[in-house]
Amino acid sequence: MEVLGMMMETDFQIMSRLLQQFNSSAASLEERVSALRELEYLVHQVDNAQDFITIGGLQLVIGTLNSSEAVLQEHAALVLGSALSSNPVVQVESVEGGALQKLLLLLATEQPLPVKKKALFAMASLLRHFPFAQQRFLKLGGLQVLEALFLSSGGASLRVRAVTLLYDMIVEKELILQHGLDPVPDASHEARLRQYAQVSLLPQLAERGWCGLVPELLASPEHDVREKALRALLAMMPPCRELYRGDRALAGALSLLQEQYQGLAESERGFGDEDGYFGELLGLVDSMLGKLR
Q1: What pLDDT, in 10s, does the model give residues 18-32?
Q2: What is the Cβ-side half-sphere exposure of residue 216, based on CA atoms within 13 angstroms?
């Protein structure tokens, strides 16, 4: 049993070995990708992610975002996003290490779709519950980068992810400032409140024309995409209401959706599902129409 214990590696030792494998001049591209895949699994754990900083892994993956190999960029962004998830220590270190600028560069330049998807995932993980990073995102032109993604051809999935990220940021600020629902109620709560107050997301969204962009997603045949669009439209109502009221195409699209979801919700109720998904979507449409009257 003692011999078996000696043979078992700790997660710290495994991560150190994988970093050595990645850094080895003799490692093939496949071996380096394999190392990143294993690291991504390990850094999901909060303690492992923080140890990853200690052994230099975080700075390594941030640097790998600049790689000339797209597959390394993709997997480095995935490792980074996993390490960042719900981990304030890693979020702070990543901002200080220049991750935000590198992720924006990946999203703003010509890259394969998988690279952009993983970069957007890492970006969302970096910004979530981190108002300081959200301020930096806005100052560095993050909305312009997301706008270019939204308008690019062949990136339908990126459009939805971009709008979802913006919706999450709007709602997060609202929940904390208006309802006091801070997911991290510690000594720095007051400082976070001040930081959130300085994140001027909604005015900048209106200024950049997002009030006119998000309604385009309602034309999607996918209910999930429509739901995300409807939630985002409702969240953006304060600065966008007057533009919405004058948008006949939006009014027409909402009326068609209302008719469709009335029928689907009625079918749900016929099967005994009083609180079904289509009833929820109908509620979102009705709420939009009500706010536009």
Answers
A1: 999 999 999 999 999
A2: 13
Calpha distance 291→293 (Å, rounded): 6
In the chain, the percentage of residues whose pLDDT exceeds 70 is: 94
- Whole-angstrom distance, CA of residue 39 vs CA of residue 92: 20
Q: What is the dihedral of CA 238, 243, 246, 251, to 10 degrees?
A: -70
Q: Which of 86, 2, 1, 70 is nearest to 36 (CA)?
A: 70
Cα–Cα dist 140/33, whole Å = 30
Angle at 126 (CA atoms; ends 121, 128), nearest 5 degrees? 95
Give the CB-side neighbour count of residue 122, counting CA atoms within 13 A.
Answer: 34
Residue 132 contacts residue 169 (beta carbons within 8 Å): no
What stretches of 156-215 show up as alpha helix (H) in DSSP? 156-179, 189-197, 201-207, 210-213
